[in-house]
Amino acid sequence: MTDSLLRFRPEFPILERCTYLVSNSLGAMPRTVPDRLAEYADAWRTHGVRAWAKGWWEMPITVGDVIAPLIGAAPHEVGMVPTVTLAQATILSAIPFTKERDTVVMTALDFPSVRYAVEQLAPKFGARVVVVPSADGISIDQAELHEAITPRTALVSVSHVMFKSAFILDADALVQHAHAQGAVVSLDAYHSVGVIPVDVKRSGVDFLAGGVLKWLCGGPGGCFVYASPGASERFAPALTGWQAHARPFAFDPHMEPAAGIARWLGGTPTVPALYAATEGPRIVAEVGMAAIRAKSERQTASLIALADARGYRVVAPREAARRGGTVAFDVPHGAEVAQALLARDIVIDYRPGAGIRVAPHFYSTDAEVERVVAEIDAILATEAWRPFAGSRPTVT
Ligand SMILES: Cc1ncc(COP(=O)(O)O)c(C=O)c1O
Fold first, then answer.
1. CA 47/CA 62 separation, integer angstroms
2. Across the 396 residues of the chain, what is the mean pLDDT of every consecutive 10-residue run?
């Protein structure tokens, strides 16, 4: 079977140099990114401070417009912000907690950084956090999650796809249930946008935040926040900044939130990151989400089959509809095996409690998927992991 998506491989130079199976951490860089960064440098060199008036100031919205179609949002409904943690904290700061409605619902499998922020901030806003546990460390029981959402729930702030296990929550059902209870929903979509279809209009979600650096191949510093038009009308964040002001250049000492998505922005935008951020999403849009998802389902299924054939424990949902783009191999000496793979230029990452995370993307070949498993076999059989015993895992 020919894999027509492999025609995009030449767009990503790193694929020539290594087996790159880590798009769940940092997507491969498109070859055109250096041109975009040169444009940034040229604008700065040529225009100096006037560059702000030549597009820099509006970049959080104009770049957001590139992301919007990938999540089913309309133009001017997505803004670019520095991090997802900050986006979720900003959203929390907008929720009017009351004595009767004082609860934030999260899950045990949400990304810790977001949980840190929510758990630190919630008490300061008079709110408490309820965390729905995971029985198996892989999945969240959707019925249990729904049960935790009650008329006391003000905000549901959960991951759409879990970072360790790639378990997919049913966003549509979640939003429907939460709205029926009068709760607002904010999804952390870092592990969904770019690898599974996301449609904010279909789900009716109030907020959704993610980043371009993983599955969208857009590099660090380019995170995005979607707010539904209704949410932007109803709420304004306490955690704010001058880009969110209705008239930022009036330097009014008092806050008056801008209309629409701009009110979710903060201070000066991360301009160089925003130059780099658009190339990956542009390619992902060209490839098409349906094709990306179909290939991802097929390659993650073959990773699971290869693991099963060898008796390796897999940390990933078995059901394709509930599985995102990553399969974690929980093999003996996993941290050391991961180091040995990296030394062989097979780029993966390792997460305690999950194992070696393998994340093929639309540009990955089936041979690469088979190779990572064959190398795990070889490393275990020859004990090639031993030299890495006691060494600290590298950051990937
Ligand atoms: C699901 C999820 N949320 C949030 C983050 C981190 O967000 P940020 O560093 O942009 O705050 C990650 C990073 O891997 C993640 O996987």
1. 19
2. 93 98 97 98 98 97 98 98 98 98 98 98 97 96 98 98 96 98 98 98 98 98 98 98 97 97 97 98 98 98 97 94 96 96 96 93 98 97 93 66
Distance between CA 193 and CA 140 in Å, rounded?
20
Copy the structure tokens of residue 128: 């408490």
- For the Cβ of 114 lying below 6 angstroms from any atom of ligand 1, the answer is yes
H or E element at residue 349: strand 349-351
Q: How many helices (H) and strands (E) does the chain have?
A: 13, 13
Other Cβ atoms within 10 Å of 261 Cβ, number: 28
- Closest to 219 measured CA to CA, from 287, 281, 285, 292: 281
Give the fold, CATH level 3, of 4-24+288-388. Answer: Aspartate Aminotransferase, domain 1 (3.90.1150)
Q: Which two tokens stand for residue 199?
A: 């449609």
Q: d(Cα 320, Cα 304) in Å, to the nearest integer? A: 11
Q: How far apart are CA 170 and CA 377, in angstroms?
A: 35
Q: Where are the alpha helices (DSSP H) in 18-101?
A: 33-47, 59-67, 84-92
Q: What are phi and psi of 25, to 5 degrees?
A: -110, -60
CATH code: domain 33-284 is 3.40.640.10
Sign of CA dihedral 259, 90, 56, 278: negative
Q: Which ligand 1 atom sits nearest the alpha carbon of residue 223?
A: 10
Residue 106 belongs to what H/E stretch?
A: strand 103-107
* Shortest-distance Cα residue to atom 7 of ligand 1: 84
User: What's this model's pTM, rounded to 2 decimal places?
Assistant: 0.96
In the reported structure, the alpha carbon of residue 381 is separated from the centroid of ligand 1 by a whole-number distance in angstroms of 35
Alpha carbon 366 to chain centroid distance?
Answer: 24
- How is the chain split into domains, by residue range? 4-24+288-388, 33-284
- Torsion sign (Cα): 372, 375, 379, 381: positive
Closest ligand 1 atom to 82 CA: 10
Backbone angles phi, psi at 32, to 5 degrees: -85, -5
Q: Which helix (H) or strand (E) holds 203?
A: helix 200-203
- Tell me how far the alpha carbon of residue 191 lies from the centroid of ligand 1, in angstroms: 9
Q: Amino acid identity, residue 153? A: T
State which of 26, 83, 106, 113 you would mutate to test the pocket of ligand 1, scoring each by most atoms of that ligand within 8 A of its C-beta: 113
Contacts of 302 (CB under 8 A, 6+ apart): 366, 369, 370
